[in-house]
């Protein structure tokens, strides 16, 4: 019946009597229909669940709902009633067949919480059992349904008219709480085989969304008898079954093996089962029947324990069974086997008991719960049971429990022992009331509050306050010597909402042994800096079974459940950041993908790459426990050019804090770096995107250029380079200024008697003035071609002082700038371009191809000059130019300056003759042509002088025009493509390096030549036309 239709009134009565230490829990059901207790489920945290079954009168069916009562350790009871409609299952599941119900409940402990697995059946045709399929439903303790999964066809008995046989499957949860379980079911072929029972086995896992998935292929195993299934301490599975040989054994040797206990070992997530091994052989004269087999993980001794109940073949109905206790480690190695002949205490009179039932259960803290069960009214199948209970030690000694003998128990629910050694008995139902009686059983071993008798002490202790930045190790001291094994040691941060919390560090005993060390019985676990990174938070530790092995038996020891070993980091006073610091506190950084990660990333399309980035930033934010918006990305990735294999850098930014309580970005960067460098022991190694990160690289912040020593060094080199050009330029100006002053001084004192003192005074007077005047003329010459000034008169005056060879000393900057541009192009292609896909090849192409084109063009210019005939036009042009210069001289004694220019002109020779004058000139020309491949303007150096050093090569006027035209071509075929490449590179690059920024700036300056070069070409052409017109 639906929950909303129920008016539930319940009361909890918990009281303790003085004579016995026991508690009672009583609950009142509002529904008046008769009901039974269908079973009890118990969990590691001592939560229990009762199934309420309301039977319909006159049949084998019950009401079509699943009713549960969840009883928490604090005494709270939560009712859950799920109707058939809510469950989405068919009515056939609420009827038994030959006493077996299709619906069976199993408790499942996981790190995410407590769940219930419900088996049921769906029929495509209710009249045809061969259309029946078995299913498993997953629900939580709030009644939420997560998934329904088909387990395969239901069992049909071909020997009984193909009757449906429900309830023949079992579920065994994995001991390590990894949300996994084993599904075991019989096959129909078992009915046709007189020797073997065939079973189908599969391993399953619960996914994050609650769906179920196979972790192994289905495996079929034959058994002579139904096995007892156990999940071993190390997380594997064992199938243990008895094999009685008495009926077929014809040996007359009464001491030969009469029966045995066998085990089949099946590894976790494996498709291969090992061959059966024998755990125990029975050799005795008196024949015994194995009546019961119960195998469980032993929490008081190493490994597992099997309790074999053997009933003597005696005519005495009250004969006491013999119990064989077998201790063995995972894999089947037995280290202890003994029998207990339990002689009942005198308090139980044998005469009082008729056809008793015996129950023995291993206890978590040593010993066994032993009970003798007798129906109060043996003639009534539904009669409750009287229970006499004891605690039995390994020597067969009985210890009285805390309850008065006998205690009545409901007939449908066996007593349960919780992990804290508490016994729970369901008492007979009275009307609409059901009640539980609980008692604490005697403990042979103490657990020191760790719920594990093998753990002696820990540091820090439970509930201790610790100083985060002073905690470098966690230690566990066991009660026995240990060695590391394959289990994990996990540190969680309690986030107050989800279970189990935030994973901070995971240590595997074998795979991460550099973080865990053993000293006899003590394990020390190294703590990385990022683990306790939130002062004032609570942390707790879980230890998987099989984290350590017993040194003596080489068997895995039990671990430690969550919420037991917890401690708190002390709060630290946080320094107040200034608002300015918070505003500019964002940090850019990068992470690196492994080779496999890079290969995986390359195979993603654009949208998948963006999803990869989003997942990565989410996982990193979760790992360092900050808000999602604090870790962002611009979706940029580049290639690591220094790696021998292809690996990507990914851009990851840490945003500035929005509130004073937010974690500082530098601390987040530090934690990220530590966690990635130690990702094998952090949650990052198991996430979908972060698992591809290169742990050696970590998280590297990208500093501002003024914080980067490499960039500062590069900037200093650039400044030194331009400072050197400036010094060279000033030296050239000083040299020409001194020469001009000397020439003027000689002219001014030529009529006077030679006086060195007067001559030196004149020089000092005019040196500085002439220096600045020449520099001013150079500046004027730079801007003249832009036609920003029109100063013809000034131009004439300038010509009085500076001849054609000496003008514009700033050309040193032009040559140096061209050299810098070429070097930067090469460095960019070599260092930077390879980091962005396709940029490297484009950069190399636009370095080499334009170089070849401009080199060919330079060769063409020089060859044209070499084959050019000396003609009278050029000679007349030169003579007329000299005459014009002579006419323009003033009568104030400037004849010597004009004569110097004429001498210079007379010294110039054709390039062919110039090359013949010296072999070194040929080498110089080859060097200049080679450099012209980088910049055609270099060829102008054949007509350039520096501090008196000059080549005095006579060149045609077309020479300068062709050079300017070559510079324009170079800008079009090289600098414009370079600009596009640089811009694209910066749009993809993670780090705006000094080199890439300077290269872009130089390229932009070069492109501006498209504005200045045509104007300069026009000026040269106009000058040439004027010269011809004057002729």
From TrEMBL:
UniProt key word Signal: yes
Residue span of region Disordered: 884-906
Domain of life: Eukaryota
Entry keywords, A to Z: Membrane, Signal, Transmembrane, Transmembrane helix
Endpoints of the signal sequence: 1-22
Keyword Magnesium annotated: no
Transmembrane regions listed in the UniProt entry: 711-735, 810-828, 840-863, 923-942, 992-1015
Name assigned to this protein: TRP C-terminal domain-containing protein
């Amino acid at each position: 019946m639906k929950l909303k239709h129920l008016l539930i009134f319940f009361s909890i009565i918990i009281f303790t009597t003085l004579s016995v230490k026991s508690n009672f829990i009583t609950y009142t059901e509002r529904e008046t229909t008769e009901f039974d207790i269908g079973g009890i489920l118990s969990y590691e945290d001592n939560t229990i669940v009762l199934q309420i079954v309301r039977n319909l009168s006159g049949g084998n069916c019950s009401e079509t709902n699943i009713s549960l009562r969840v009883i928490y350790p604090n005494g709270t009871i939560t009712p859950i009633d799920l109707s058939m409609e809510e469950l989405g299952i068919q009515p056939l599941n609420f009827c038994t067949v030959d006493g077996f119900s299709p619906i069976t409940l199993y408790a499942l402990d996981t790190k995410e919480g407590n769940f219930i697995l419900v088996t049921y059946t769906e029929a495509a045709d209710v009249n045809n059992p061969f259309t029946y399929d078995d299913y498993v439903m997953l629900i939580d303790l709030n009644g939420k349904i997560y998934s329904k999964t088909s387990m395969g066809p239901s069992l049909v008995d071909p020997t009984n008219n193909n009757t449906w046989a429900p309830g023949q499957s079992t579920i065994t949860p994995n001991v390590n709480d990894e949300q996994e379980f084993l599904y075991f079911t019989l096959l129909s072929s078992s009915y046709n085989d007189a020797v073997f029972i065939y079973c189908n086995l599969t391993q399953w896992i619960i996914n994050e969304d609650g769906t179920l998935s196979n972790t192994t292929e289905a495996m079929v195993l034959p058994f002579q008898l139904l096995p007892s299934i156990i999940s071993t301490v190390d997380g594997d599975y064992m199938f243990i079954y008895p094999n009685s040989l008495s009926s077929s054994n014809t040996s007359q040797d009464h001491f030969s093996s009469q029966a045995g206990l066998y085990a089949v070992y099946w590894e976790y997530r494996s498709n291969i089962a090992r061959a059966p091994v024998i755990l125990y052989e029975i050799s005795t004269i008196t024949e015994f029947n194995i009546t019961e087999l119960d195998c469980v993980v032993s929490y008081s001794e190493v490994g597992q324990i099997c309790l074999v109940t053997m009933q003597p073949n005696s005519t005495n109905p009250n004969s006491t069974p013999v119990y064989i206790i077998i201790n063995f480690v995972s894999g089947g190695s037995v280290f202890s086997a003994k029998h207990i002949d339990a002689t009942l205490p005198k308090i139980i009179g044998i005469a009082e008991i008729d056809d008793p039932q015996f129950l023995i259960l291993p206890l978590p803290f040593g010993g066994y719960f032993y009970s003798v069960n007798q129906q109060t009214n043996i003639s009534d199948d539904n009669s409750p049971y009287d229970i006499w209970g004891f605690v039995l030690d390994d020597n067969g000694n009985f210890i009285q429990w805390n309850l008065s003998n006998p205690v009545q128990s409901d007939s449908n629910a066996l007593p349960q022992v919780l992990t804290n050694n508490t016994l729970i008995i369901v008492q007979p139902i009275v009307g609409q009331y059901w009640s539980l009686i609980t008692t604490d059983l005697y403990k042979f071993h103490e657990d020191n509050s760790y719920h594990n008798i093998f753990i002696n002490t820990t540091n820090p202790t439970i509930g201790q306050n610790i100083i985060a930045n002073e905690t470098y190790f966690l230690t566990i001291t066991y009660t026995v010597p240990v060695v590391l094994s394959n289990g994990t040691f996990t540190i969680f941060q309690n986030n107050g909402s989800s279970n189990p919390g935030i994973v901070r560090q995971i240590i595997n005993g074998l795979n991460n042994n550099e973080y865990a060390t053993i000293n006899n019985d003590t394990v020390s676990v190294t703590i990385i800096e990022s683990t306790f990174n939130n002062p004032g938070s609570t942390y707790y530790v879980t230890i998987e079974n099989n984290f350590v092995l017993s040194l003596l038996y080489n068997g895995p020891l039990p671990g430690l459940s969550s919420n037991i070993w917890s401690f708190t980091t002390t709060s630290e006073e946080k320094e107040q950041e200034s608002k300015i610091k918070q505003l500019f506190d964002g940090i850019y950084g990068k992470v690196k993908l492994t080779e496999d990660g890079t290969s995986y990333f390359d195979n993603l399309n654009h949208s998948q790459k963006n999803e990869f980035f989003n997942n990565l930033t989410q996982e990193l934010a979760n790992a360092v426990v900050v808000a999602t918006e604090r870790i962002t990305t611009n979706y940029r990735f580049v290639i690591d050019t220094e790696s021998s294999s292809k690996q990507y850098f990914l851009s990851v930014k840490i945003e500035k804090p929005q509130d004073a309580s937010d974690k500082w970005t530098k601390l987040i960067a530090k934690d990220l770096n530590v966690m990635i460098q130690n990702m094998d022991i952090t949650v990052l190694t198991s996430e979908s995107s972060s698992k591809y990160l290169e742990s050696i690289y970590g998280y590297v912040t990208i500093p501002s250029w003024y914080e980067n020593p490499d960039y500062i060094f590069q900037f200093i080199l650039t400044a030194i380079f331009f400072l050197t050009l400036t010094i060279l330029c000033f030296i050239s100006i000083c040299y020409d200024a001194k020469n001009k002053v000397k020439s003027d001084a000689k002219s001014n004192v030529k009529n006077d008697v030679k006086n060195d003192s007067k001559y030196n005074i004149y020089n000092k007077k005019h040196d500085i003035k002439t220096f600045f005047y020449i520099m001013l003329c150079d500046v004027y010459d730079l801007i003249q071609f832009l036609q920003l000034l029109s100063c013809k008169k000034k131009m004439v005056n300038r010509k009085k002082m500076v001849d054609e060879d000496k003008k514009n000393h700033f050309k040193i900057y032009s040559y140096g700038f061209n050299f810098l541009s070429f070097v930067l192009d090469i460095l960019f292609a070599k260092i930077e371009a390879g980091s962005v896909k396709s940029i490297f090849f484009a950069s190399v192409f636009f370095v080499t191809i334009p170089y070849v084109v401009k080199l060919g063009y330079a060769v063409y210019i020089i060859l044209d000059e070499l084959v050019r005939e000396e003609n009278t036009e050029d000679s007349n042009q030169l003579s007329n130019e000299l005459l014009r210069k002579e006419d323009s001289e003033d009568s104030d004694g400037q004849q010597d300056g004009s004569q110097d220019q004429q001498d210079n002109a007379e010294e110039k020779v054709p390039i062919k003759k110039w090359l013949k004058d010296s072999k070194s000139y040929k080498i110089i020309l080859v060097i200049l042509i080679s450099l012209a491949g980088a910049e055609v303007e270099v060829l102008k150096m054949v007509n350039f002088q520096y501090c008196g050093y000059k080549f005095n090569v006579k060149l045609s006027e077309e020479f300068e025009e062709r050079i300017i035209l070559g510079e324009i071509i170079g800008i079009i075929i090289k600098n414009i493509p370079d600009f596009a490449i640089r811009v694209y590179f910066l749009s993809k690059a993670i780090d705006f390096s000094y080199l890439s920024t300077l290269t872009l700036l130089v390229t932009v300056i070069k492109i501006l030549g498209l504005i200045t070069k045509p104007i300069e070409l026009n000026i040269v052409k106009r000058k040439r036309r004027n010269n011809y017109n004057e002729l």
